[in-house]
Amino acid sequence: MAKQSSSKKQRFRDIKQGKEAHKKPSTQYKYPYAKVSEKMKAFLTDSFMLMMPIMYIVVYLIMDGREGFGEHKLLGWIAIFIPLIIVQTLFMTKTAQTPGYRAYNLKLIDENTGEKPTLFIILFRNFCAMLSFFTFFGWTMMFFRKDAKTLHDLLSRTAVIRKS
């Protein structure tokens, strides 16, 4: 034990005196995963740019106001989320980015290929995102994982990365 301790002290001294270069631990990931803060900012941007207009149309034009929406909440939320999924899927299929992802320089990739995911994978991911939103567990996973992946990213084998 004393031998090991003295070798650690000597290594520290060597690094401090510049005799040995300090080695940074190599990252185990092959992609520059987006940080939680970047993903949250992109989510908020998408909420205001994509979801709010859809909500306005559904609540005030289709359901005839708050009272109508209050009477048929489940139908109202379905009428909001289906177009939202379609719009997000169209954005991601075309450029692998939503407006929020573009604003924060993020991109969605297929983990297996490193390229833009297929239409089916994006659609599956967006449906899983809506389901995991209601379970709350799927979205909170990103706070506990080093790669900040959510449940829908794991299920669809996709990742949100920083665009270089």
Spell out the key features of this protein.
mainly alpha, 164 residues, single chain, two-stranded antiparallel ribbon
Write a short abstract of this structure.
With 164 residues, this protein is mainly α.
Please, could you describe this protein's structure?
There is one protein chain. The protein has helices at residues 2-16, 36-62, 66-71, 73-95, 99-103, 119-135, 137-140, 151-156; strands spanning 106-110, 158-162. The protein has 164 residues and is mainly alpha-helical. The chain has one domain (32-162). Strands 1-2 form a two-stranded antiparallel sheet. Helix 2 packs across helix 4 and helix 4 (73-95) runs antiparallel to helix 6.
Which helices and strands appear, and what pairs or packs with what?
Elements: H1 2-16, H2 36-62, H3 66-71, H4 73-95, H5 99-103, E1 106-110, H6 119-135, H7 137-140, H8 151-156, E2 158-162
Antiparallel strand pairs: 1-2
Helix pairs in contact: 2-4, 4-6
